[in-house]
Amino acid sequence: MAMINSTSGYDNTNYSRVSGLSSGMDIDAIVSKMMRAERLPLDKLEQKKQTLEWQQADYRSLNTILNEFRTNAYDTRLERTFLARNADSSNTGVAAVSAAANAIDGTYSIKVNQLATGVARASTIDLPSGKTADGRSLTLFEQFEAEFTARGYGAEDKISVTINGKELQFDLGNDNLTTVASIINQADLGISAAYDSKMNRFFLNTTATGSEAKISITADAAGLFANLGEDDNTSMLNLSLNQGMSYTGQNASIDFGDAQGLTSSSNSITVNGITLNLKGEGSTSITVTRNIEGTIDSISKFVDSYNKTLKTHYDKVQEERDPRFPPLTAAQKEKMNDSEIAAWEKKAKSGLLKTDGELKNLINSLRSAVSTAVSGLDGPYKTLSSIGIKSEAYDKSGQLVLDEDALRKALSDDPDAVKKLFTNASKDRNEQGIATKLYQSALDGISYLAGQAGSATTTGTVDSSFIGKKLSKLSSEIKNWETKLIKKEDQHYQRFTQMEKAIFKMNAQSSWLMLMMGSGY
What we know:
Helices cover 42% and strands 18% of the residues. With 521 residues, the protein is an alpha+beta fold.
């Protein structure tokens, strides 16, 4: 606000606005009322933007739910859903078992002749301490000084060791057993190494099992890992390894019914879709049966996902739109408390998708897929209702109701027919299985929703979608209007400033005349 100087009147330095010091008028209040009318077009734009953002959020929410249903429909259209198998072992101490969809029902006799093993070596005695009294790790030379000295090596030397065909180097004056283990682990030898400083033992193990797993030390002149002579124990690490010898693991061996001597490099063996996880030598009996309850559980989840998707979309297009509740302006919110704002906005957000014809088409497509028969199928199971899945009345959004007993009977009577009812693939939509049709309907719906408002994972309000582009344009219009209003407000203040200056000048002249008259001039 401009400052008044008692001798020279207004100080015009950086002068911009006054607030009625001369006129006694509340200039800020007057300008605020004048700007309220000027803001109306901007308020309309901001309300339109808010409505679009709410619509965008609704579309994206529907897209998220439809994406979840698409995944469920995809799983249900796969044959494996209807070919699930149970597998039990009479002796889990010998073998645990699981069965894939292609496993054949029946009982199988299994004998485990031997387990697959790798090669494991550990220091057979305590090694010299690898740490000082204050906890510092000793170097290789410090820990095995007597042995290295006796064999002609000093602290400044480096030694090489060839393990599984790869030459490794170790620095006696800098490396310790922990770094030795690390060098071995990083060398891709098929061997893991570890040093336990508390137990003072070193460990070597093959990372795999079977006859291809090996530990072979072909060159170790210092005798750090391997014995210098055959059948002695002169290696510093006491690992019971001789130079030039290859120590290998063994394959697992089983008898699977009449198939004798089946081998595997690991203790997991799969035969005709039956996977055996071998635990010990001995015999067990394996029973494989159709997992009807697992199939029922998968179909039940599919029905739940369908119902959630249909109801969410149906409720959105059924919401009533009340034009009496547009988005609140900032000025309106200032006059309301939080609960009043929340209640108003709940009504303002309602019915934003009510007129969307494409959503209604999607709903009809979902309903049609579950209510019509699949052409080209033989036998009585051609509709969902024939296997115990019935649709409620359309005034209840067409939710599906599952009769598990009826579905269980259908799966027991003709599992292949039930499978085809869901999974049948064809270019002819009438011949497509229920899950196949619903999967395609979901894809079409996802594509439409993404085009309207972005995908389910889109962040931010502005993107290349239909609503995203409209929001971008509105944001530019709003920014332009805000600039215009700032200029308009400045113009109003400038006019009142001129008025204040004129009144001040008149008042000053009047005071001067009164002063002159009172002094007798």
